[in-house]
């Protein structure tokens, strides 16, 4: 059959692509009908019979027999003389079905037809991949490192789909080698042109939440609920957990004996320090727990402004603030309150913002970033430690200390 050589080349798509029989038939018919429209002006009177399993098809053109001098549309009508060349007993008014060979479409049309088919199948594949990964957003996914670039790592999954792990979605301590498997969550997917762009993240709080589901059976089974996760990727995280079964200790179950259960998660996240906290609807108690390992003496709330003042013994203050201010920052994110630390036994303190006439706002902001927002909270710190924890020069810090000390001397 003249059609066979070309159609055999189409059958490769059935084997190489994940296209079901019905979809392949629909794509093939659409492509061939477009070719017929270009060649004959219309495809309304054509029947296309496709057998994708064999890689074969037939095209039949249906026309009405008219008298020799009455042909007005040679695509819809055929003269009696031409019809009788097909079958000698045709009469005017009868229908004639004639097979159209692909070769009749012309070499250029056939090349265009094949290119159109490739394009349609790629478009179908891309749409399928887009829908597949759209359903996977927020789920953990594993792929292999294919190429390492300055701003992103390109991964390939088992199906050959390309997944992008941008630099800002990587944990700071991440180091990848070509060929190794990487886990993260599918954070998003969008069509760039007709090609899906799949984004993976290892820094999203949802990644840590999904790791809890994977690694801790009680979370997977729904016996323990992860209420909220906040992270500073690679540094510290806080996870609030709850259980509707009073017999289950959610924190103990998540951490495991001597940290056995959470150890694998910590290792996956580049030794990120993870605090697991019992969730409660009591905001004072929740804030106290969120500031762990510090022991809080008293919590005073302003629910309208979502502001909390916590009273601590002086030796507990540095624990509440934590390295780089991470602990108090995450506690605020976890509870939804802006938290200010007050020292027990200290009767008088002054907000740093009160010194805005003498200390520039950006310098005050540097102290606030590490949880220091009052004069005495700054004065209680060692100057060399403040140099390490802020972006301020020692000279600047010493000047701030001088200004603050003058306030209390006065």
TrEMBL record:
Keywords: Cytoplasm, RNA-binding, Transcription, Transcription antitermination, Transcription regulation, Transcription termination
All residue ranges annotated as the Transcription factor NusA first KH domain in the record: 202-278
Coiled coil stretches, renumbered: none
Presence of keyword Protein biosynthesis: no
One Pfam match: KH_NusA_2nd
Localization: Cytoplasm
Family: Belongs to the NusA family.
NCBIfam families: NusA
Name by which UniProt lists this protein: Transcription termination/antitermination protein NusA
Protein's organism: Galbibacter pacificus
């Amino acid at each position: 059959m003249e059609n066979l050589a070309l159609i055999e080349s189409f059958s490769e798509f059935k084997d190489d692509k994940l296209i079901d029989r019905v979809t392949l038939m629909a794509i093939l018919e659409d492509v061939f009908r477009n070719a017929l429209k270009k060649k004959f002006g219309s495809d309304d009177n054509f029947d296309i019979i496709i057998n994708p399993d064999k890689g074969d098809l037939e095209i039949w053109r249906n026309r009405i027999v008219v008298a020799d001098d009455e042909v007005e549309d040679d695509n819809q009508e055929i003269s009696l003389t031409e019809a009788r060349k097909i079958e000698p007993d045709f009469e005017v008014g009868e229908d004639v079905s004639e097979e159209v060979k692909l070769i009749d479409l012309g070499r250029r049309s056939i090349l265009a037809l094949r290119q159109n088919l490739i394009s349609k199948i790629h478009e179908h594949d891309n749409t399928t991949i887009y829908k597949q990964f759209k359903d996977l957003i927020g789920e953990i996914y594993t792929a292999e490192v294919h190429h390492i670039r300055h701003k992103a790592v390109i991964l390939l999954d088992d199906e050959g789909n390309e997944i992008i792990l941008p630099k800002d979605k990587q944990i700071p301590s991440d180091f990848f080698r070509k060929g190794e498997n990487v886990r993260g969550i599918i954070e998003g997917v969008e069509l760039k042109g007709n090609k899906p762009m799949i984004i993976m993240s290892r820094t999203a709080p949802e990644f840590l939440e999904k790791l809890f589901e994977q690694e801790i059976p009680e979370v997977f089974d729904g016996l323990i609920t992860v209420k909220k996760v906040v992270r500073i990727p690679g540094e510290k995280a806080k996870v609030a957990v709850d259980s509707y079964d009073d017999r289950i200790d959610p924190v103990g179950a998540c951490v495991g004996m001597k940290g056995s259960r959470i150890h694998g998660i910590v290792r996956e996240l580049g030794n990120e320090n993870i605090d697991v906290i019992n969730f409660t609807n009591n905001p004072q108690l929740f804030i106290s727990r969120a500031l762990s390992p510090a022991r809080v003496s008293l919590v005073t709330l302003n629910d309208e402004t979502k502001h909390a003042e916590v009273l601590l013994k002086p030796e507990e203050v540095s624990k509440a603030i934590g390295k780089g201010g991470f602990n108090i920052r995450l506690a605020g994110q976890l509870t939804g309150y802006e938290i200010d630390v007050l020292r027990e036994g200290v009767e008088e303190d002054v907000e740093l913002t009160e010194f805005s006439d003498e200390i520039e706002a950006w310098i005050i902001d540097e102290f606030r970033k590490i949880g220091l927002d009052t004069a005495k909270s700054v004065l209680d710190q060692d100057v060399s430690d403040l140099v390490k924890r802020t972006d301020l020069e020692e000279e600047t810090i010493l000047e701030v200390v001088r200004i603050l000390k003058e306030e209390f001397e006065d």
